[in-house]
UniProtKB/TrEMBL annotation:
The active site is at E311 (proton acceptor). This is 3-phosphoshikimate 1-carboxyvinyltransferase. It comes from the Bacteria. Keywords: Amino-acid biosynthesis, Aromatic amino acid biosynthesis, Cytoplasm, Transferase. It comes from Nocardioides flavus.
Length: 426
């Protein structure tokens, strides 16, 4: 078993100010668009974590130049994509889904693989759509990793139908590369509702910033016109999903936590934390870019459809386990295909520490129950580790397995968390 990390528990309500690293989703989109662009770009204040380093490595292996600047930014220069390569997706959905459509525009065979669990995460529908757009893919009929993409330098593109109910990233992936296809791309979703729609909106907004024309007037249809992708310098916002455990620190301790540089407007789903924490009884204010959460004496349970913001589920579920009325978290069947089956993992691990949890096909019901210490397993999932440390705020002797798994989207999370719980500015 990996190392067990004693989750720190504050003894008094905290009063902290926290600055967070950049957004994974924004950094990886910025890198892809910079690599596809018509000139050099700078990605400013990028997140440097496992997922974004894997993205930078993938684009570099194709022939893109990604260099560190003295300011800690990433300078990206498009290169000739004229070679065979191997891409390690790790456990990054954005690498496995966003890079194959780009490889269609390269000349060479690119083989993709990743961590053991990555071979179970859904990608088959996206590969099939890419095939229909004119890209040759060899996945041995598995519809999963490992697979190879045979790029010829051009992709016909055009209209394609896809069932993207397993992941919004299928749509984002096709849109990101689509402007560089001969006929652009016109993606039509058919199936159960697409999850995480704000992430598709994030893709559309970033494409428009790069001068790409996108028609998203109709529901379940996104059309990208063919044309150049203009080089643009990006400022990466802080990762608002990774704000969840830090805001939970205020919420769960009846304390006060301020996260700096909260964007005035954003497509990041973490922005929903403001209304979710308000529903749980917190006082939430924004003042001059500082978001402050003051926790209540007792947290209230919530009834929430998290379909649009599924990646927040682990942190919210942990807070619900600390609330003094029942919670229903619904609409997140798709998170069974995330870093682990998050619904089963949360039901198992919250239950192990005494929580009264009922697992449902598309979510969890959590009722108040006395909690106790024990080992919280994380299944290589950064957000399970966040859930574990949140429980540790209110329960003695919670041991979080493999805290280092948080490096997927947060460099030195353990250090930042200890600092935030015990005092000082991160
Ligand atoms: O496009 C993105 O950057 C993401 C989209 C979402 O994926 P799903 O639609 O698979 O939930 C989200 O959960 C993931 O963390 C990041
Ligand atoms: C689902 C997530 O990641 P990925 O980008 O690997 O899909 C996540 O970070 O919660």
């Amino acid at each position: 078993m990996s190392e067990l990390w004693p989750a720190p528990r504050p003894h008094d309500p905290v009063d902290r100010r926290v600055s967070l690293p950049g957004s994974k989703s924004l950094t990886n989109r910025a890198l892809v668009l910079a690599a596809l662009a018509d000139g050099p770009s700078v990605v400013r204040r990028p997140l440097r974590s496992r997922d974004t380093l894997l993205m930078a490595a993938a684009l570099t292996s194709l022939g893109t130049v990604v260099e560190d600047t003295p300011d800690g930014d990433w300078a990206v220069t498009p290169g000739a994509w004229d070679r065979d390569a191997d891409v390690d997706c790790g456990l990054a959905g954005t690498v496995m889904r966003f890079v194959p459509p780009v490889v269609g525009l390269a000349r060479g065979t690119v083989r993709f693989d990743g961590d053991p669990h990555m071979r179970l995460r859904p990608v088959g529908q996206m590969l099939a759509a890419l095939g229909a757009l004119g890209v040759r893919i060899d996945d041995g009929g598995r519809g999963a990793l490992p697979f190879a993409v045979h790029g010829t330098g051009t992709v016909a593109g055009g209209t394609v139908t896809i069932d993207a109910s397993a992941s919004s990233q299928f749509v984002s992936a096709l849109l990101l590369a689509g402007a560089r296809y001969d006929h652009g791309v016109d993606v039509r979703h058919v199936g159960k509702p697409v999850p995480s729609l704000p992430h598709i909106e994030m893709t559309v907004q970033m494409l428009r910033r790069h001068g790409v024309e996108v028609d998203d007037v109709d529901a379940n249809r996104w059309a990208v016109a063919p044309g150049p992708v203009r080089a643009v310098d990006h400022d990466i916002e802080p990762d608002l999903s990774n704000a969840a455990p830090f805001l939970a620190l205020g919420a769960a301790t009846g304390g006060r936590v301020t996260v700096t540089d909260w964007p005035a407007s954003t497509t990041q789903p973490g922005d929903e934390l403001r209304s979710i924490l308000t529903l749980m009884g917190c006082e939430v204010t924004i003042d001059d870019g500082d978001l402050t959460v003051v926790g209540p004496e007792r947290l209230q349970g919530v009834d929430l459809d998290l379909h649009d913001v599924g990646e927040l589920t682990p942190a919210i579920a942990a807070l619900c386990a600390l609330a003094d009325s029942p919670s229903h978290l619904r609409g997140v069947a798709h998170i069974r295909g995330h870093e682990t089956d998050r619904i089963t993992a949360l039901a198992t691990e919250l239950g192990r520490l005494g929580a009264d949890v009922t697992e449902r096909e598309d979510g969890l019901t959590i009722r108040p129950a006395p909690l106790h210490g024990g080992t919280f397993h994380t299944y290589a999932d950064h957000r399970m580790a966040h859930a574990g440390v949140i429980l540790g705020l209110a329960v003695d002797d919670v041991l979080v397995e493999d805290i280092a798994t948080t490096s997927k989207t947060f460099p030195d999370f353990a250090g930042a968390w200890s600092h935030a719980v015990h005092g000082g500015t991160t």
